[in-house]
Write a structure and sequence with these properties.
By secondary structure, the chain is of the alpha/beta class. 57% of the residues lie in helices and 9% in strands. Helix 8 crosses helix 10.
């Protein structure tokens, strides 16, 4: 059955997108014009020349980096080599190829997807691909095979169904977007589910995370399928795609959307899941380990997370949150009662204002210990590993902190190395004037603190109250917080 194609442009690029789609509408006519075709070939030569020159430049730069010479000589060679080739002429030429149409149009779109305006190129590609469910279905089947048979992503992207120059995943995403915009398409719901599960990150040198596509698909499911009963799975996938991006438009839109589902989802488990993930997002934003938000806002988010978490399992306490994994079917998770207890525990212990003194870990000799053993002074937790370069690089700064604040601060380094013997061997040759624990990277202690990168630091006040946490933070910022905490405790 033929489907109408309604291409919806993102608001940030709507005018440029509309202009390009207008040229695409007459691409076949333009391709018949000999002057246009000739111009298109000339323009593609500009693009190809850039691709070749860039590849040669990169290889030369790699050779310089690997050369067995002193750093000063490497720098001299880099300066002699000069900057990378200018990309802008090739980008403009690629846009001219797209406008003219012809045999290189997909190659040009693939170039733009990797090097320039992905939104513009993506919606132009959508105008060429059409609402073809077989394109999406074939990609999903190939991706499942990749998970089961460990095929390379290169083989997956080079599958014959994708146009030359366009990664197969991008081709499938364009088809799914067209299906989403074809109101009567019989696979519209499946296309939305595809975009939620797969449609977040594209390969390429200049590719950004495209959280917009999963988000738009979720809104479509919510508005057009009121009896949709797979929200626990979809919300888990949306949450995973947002990852650590707890700021900006992506966070605000997803948080608002999931919060609305907490009241509107037809399935009680869907409502409970929406409350859980909204609380979790707020909790992670309250952590703010990059120092982006004032303390007052972080406390307000913590309070709101607490309100959402309390009672979220009512009516579904014994049901389990079901999580789908690509290529391996379905796996069972925690009950909603366990999820509620778990997030309430995190709010009360490891979030800003919580008290972590009751949490326990193990010293390097295997003996157990609670954080309450350190509550007589300020405590700086350092989550680290011997394989973490930035962690080791920060040790001199930690030594200075330990010496400067010897009477007011204790440091507890929490290693997440696989084996405690690795830590013992490393510390035998390294001066560390602080206490050391060893915990399972995937265990309860790390999970309770929601550690996702290393090093991560957490500052606790006297008595175990969480004062702040840090990631990629200059040590002078941590030192300033220590100074403030010492002054306020006297």
């Amino acid at each position: 059955m033929a489907q109408a194609r309604v291409i919806q442009c993102p608001s940030r690029a709507v005018f440029a997108c509309a202009a390009l789609l207008a040229t695409l509408a007459s691409a076949s006519t333009a391709a018949q014009n000999e002057d246009k075709v000739g111009s298109s070939k000339d323009d593609w030569q500009i693009v190809q020349s850039y691709i070749d020159e860039r590849a040669a430049w990169v290889e030369q730069r790699k050779a310089i980096s690997l050369a067995d010479v002193e750093d000063k000589e490497k720098q001299r060679r880099r300066e002699q080599q000069g900057p990378a080739p200018d990309r802008l002429p090739a980008v403009q030429a690629a846009k001219e190829v797209v406008e003219a149409g012809g045999e290189r149009v997909y190659d040009a779109l693939g170039f733009l997807l990797r090097h320039d305006d992905q939104e513009l190129a993506m919606f132009a590609l959508s105008g060429l691909v059409g609402p073809d469910w077989s394109v999406v279905r074939d990609y999903v089947e190939a991706a499942a095979g990749k998970s089961e048979h460990a095929e390379s992503s290169v083989e997956l992207d080079r599958a014959p169904s994708a146009p030359p120059g366009v990664p197969r995943f991008v081709h499938a995403t364009a088809a799914a977007l067209n299906i989403l915009n074809s109101i009567e398409h019989e696979n519209r719901r499946e296309a939305a589910e595809f975009l939620i599960e797969y449609g977040e990150t594209w390969p390429g040198e200049h590719i950004r995370d495209h959280f917009e596509y999963p988000y738009v698909a979720a809104v479509t499911l919510s508005s057009d399928y009121p009896d949709y009963d797979q929200w626990p799975v979809r919300l888990h996938q949306l949450r995973a795609k947002l990852g650590s991006r707890t700021s900006g438009r992506d966070f605000d839109e997803l948080n608002t959307f999931i919060a609305s589902l907490a009241a509107l989802a037809g399935d009680p488990a869907g409502r409970a899941t929406a409350r859980y993930f909204t609380a979790l997002l707020l909790l992670e934003r309250a952590d703010d380990e990059y120092g982006r938000f004032p303390v007052e806002k972080r406390r307000a988010w913590r309070k709101r997370a607490l309100e959402l978490a309390r009672g979220l399992s009512v009516g579904v306490a014994d049901r389990e949150l079901t999580v789908a994994h690509r290529g391996v079917g379905t796996a069972r998770g925690q009950t909603y009662a366990d999820l509620e207890a778990d997030i309430l525990d995190m709010i009360h212990t490891t979030t800003l204002g919580g008290n972590a003194s009751g949490l326990a870990g193990r010293r390097l000799d295997g003996s157990g210990e609670r954080l309450s053993a350190y509550k007589d002074r300020l405590l700086l937790l350092d989550f680290w590993a011997t394989w973490c370069g930035p962690c080791i690089k920060a040790f001199p700064d930690l030594r200075e902190l330990a010496a400067k604040y010897a009477e007011d601060l204790r440091i507890l380094a929490v290693s997440v190395d696989d084996e405690v013997e690795t830590v013992l061997e490393f510390l035998a040759e390294t001066s560390t004037p602080w206490e050391n624990w060893h915990v399972d990277k995937h265990g309860d202690f790390v999970r309770q603190w929601r550690v996702s990168g290393y090093p991560t630091y957490v500052l606790l006040g006297r008595g175990g109250v969480v004062l702040n946490r840090y990631s990629l933070t200059p040590m002078k910022v941590i030192e300033a917080d220590i100074d403030r905490a010492i002054r306020s405790s006297r």
